[in-house]
Amino acid sequence: KMAAAAGAAAAAAGLWSEVNRCGQNGDFARALKSVNKILQINKDDVTALQCKVVCLIQNGNFKEALGVINTHTKVLTSDVIAFEKAYCEYRLNRIESALKTIQSASQQTDKLKELYGQVLYRLERYDDCLAAYRDLIRNSQDEYEEERKTNLSAVVAAQSTWEKVVPEDLGLREATYELCYNSACALIGQGKLNEAMKKLQKAEELCRQSLSEDSDVTEEDIEAELAIIHGQMAYIMQLQGRTEDALQLYNQIIKLKPTDVGLLAVIANNIITINKDQNVFDSKKKVKLTNAEGVEHKLSKKQLQAIEFNKALLAMYTNQADQCRKLSASLQSQSPEHLLPVLIQAAQLCREKQHAKAVGLLQDFADQHPANAAEIKLTMAQLKIAQGSVTKACMILKSIEELQHKPGMVSALVTMYSHEEDIDSAIEVFTQAIQWYQQYQARTNHGCCVFQPKSPVHLSLIREAANFKLKHGRKKEAISDLEELWKQNPKDVHTLAQLISAYSLVDPEKAKVLSKHLPSSDTMSLKVDVDALENSHGATYVRKKAAKLTGDNQQKEQGQGEVKKKKKKKKGKLPKNYDPKVTPDPERWLPMRERSYYRGRKKGKKKEQVGKGTQGSTTTGSSELDASRTASSPPTSPRPGSGAAVSATSNVIPPRHQKPAGAPATKKKQQQKKKKGAKGGW
């Protein structure tokens, strides 16, 4: 027994040597075989079990490694293997479990703190993550300091992008392309697109320099690494309205076929947003990239939510009503307070001509979520206007208390009431808005409101109300508004002029009294350049027009005896062979078939053909035996290419211009001569 035990110990020692050598060489597959042999000797060897877990992690077998840990919980306690267990859970996307494992560890090592920062980032707890990385950078001094700073800048960029937090200056030196890229993302979150583009260009330059130093890195590898930088550049172009450039860059990245499914999903989603309701077939292809395996672990919650919203909109644009309703209902269940799912459902109902149902859906949401009622009611008003119910739309807009007295809302309501010719309601809108500002300005004196006395908005509303009343004949009401304006600013000549104009129609005596307050012409320094005014485009046009009218009047005064110059008529073109001595044919404008002398086509004439007819016959002398072709026969119309063709210098007039003399008689004589020729010839 002692000999057997000694042999086993010797074998185990040899195996441990093998494990150590393979570990140093990075050959974890062979090391795992040796560890398994050691566990056959002693299945509860804690060190061997730890080595097995490490070998499995190095080989990427995280699920199997976690299985070993959970199987040997009595031996592998949380104090012994907490980091390995949390890391396996993190890599298997069990983020909540990884957090619990880290928090339950009795001792927080540097490795656990590093992993803790990664877990917090994945859980989007950016404030806690920022604090964790600051603590790590402060208390660590090793070769991984640059990586920690990169992670810290990534947290700041995420806060700026997703939480709209103004990032603080961390004082990080942007010596690497990762730091430049994260800085650019933070600038995009702040809306500083031009600065962000410059940062991305710098990041691209640093990336090329860094990777080109490695001889093993190919150009394809460099382009693959630059894909995420180019994707962010394209996004900036899209935000700037340069959609064509953005689309071209997006498609170039897709052609590279990057392995990052998250990058592909984001690019595909952005292309879909550019396409909108156009090029839906391309969008349906691109949406498949957003459904790739593992996308949900690569993107933030807001990114995934945006992709789902666009899927629902694409379903609506492609007339997939059921799919659109299903997706929007799922989104609403996930985020009950979010506006977009309800707006998508309402849009789908409107496409189905169910406007009343859409308005009811929006009204229910507004009642359940008062905080978002303003945007929902604006949409409801738009639907009512589309249906032609302008008055109902006005009632909905007036029910939005937080916007009721805003200048934009007042303007919209007045315009809509004017369209319906409801002037009293329009004036009431002005009155309520002016009173609202007056009340709050009164409170300002007691320090209860942010508005200042005689605010520009208040004065602007009074002026617009006065102009509106003057336009619609409410002069007395307009006068009270103008007097209020003039009291607040007695030096306003424009308001005084309007007031005098209004009084001149109602109380001329009062207008005369007020006109005394107008400045005299001597005190007014207009500083008008008369020469420049006379030489302006408008003045030149007026002078030319006046001169033209004056010239016309003078011509009329001189008398109408002068004859206007007649325009010369262009001479008509004559045929080349036209003879002025010969009277033109009066029937020359008629088609040949409708002329009185048209004889029709001659039948019975066959073209001379060789090899036709009965055997032994010949067609050589047929033309000689034809009596109609004798010299005594009267000539018919000339045939092209025949012996009777007329030269270009002859005076023969074609039938279009001259009627042949005695045409009917010629036809009769021709028939008689044919008969005689037949008798004498045979």
Distinctive features:
682 residues, mainly alpha, Serine Threonine Protein Phosphatase 5, Tetratricopeptide repeat, 64% helix, extended, disordered C terminus
Describe this structure in words.
There is one protein chain. The chain has 682 residues and is an all-alpha fold. Among the domains are: 1-107, Tetratricopeptide repeat domain (Serine Threonine Protein Phosphatase 5, Tetratricopeptide repeat, Alpha Horseshoe), CATH 1.25.40; 408-517, Tetratricopeptide repeat domain (Serine Threonine Protein Phosphatase 5, Tetratricopeptide repeat). Helix content is 64%, strand content 0%. Helix 5 (78-91) runs antiparallel to helix 6, helix 14 (261-275) runs antiparallel to helix 15 (280-286) and helix 25 packs antiparallel against helix 26. The longest helix is centred in the N-terminal third of the chain and has 24 residues, at 2-25. The relative contact order is 0.02.
Rounded Rg: 49 Å
Largest sheet: none
Strand content: under 5%
The CATH topology of the domain at 408-517 is what? Serine Threonine Protein Phosphatase 5, Tetratricopeptide repeat
**So, the CATH homologous superfamily of the domain at 408-517?**
Tetratricopeptide repeat domain
Structural class: mainly alpha
Mean pLDDT: 79
How would the global form be characterised? extended
Count of helical segments?
A: 31
CATH C-level category of the domain at 408-517: Mainly Alpha
Supply the CATH architecture of the domain at 408-517.
Answer: Alpha Horseshoe
**Poorly predicted ranges:** 446-453, 617-682
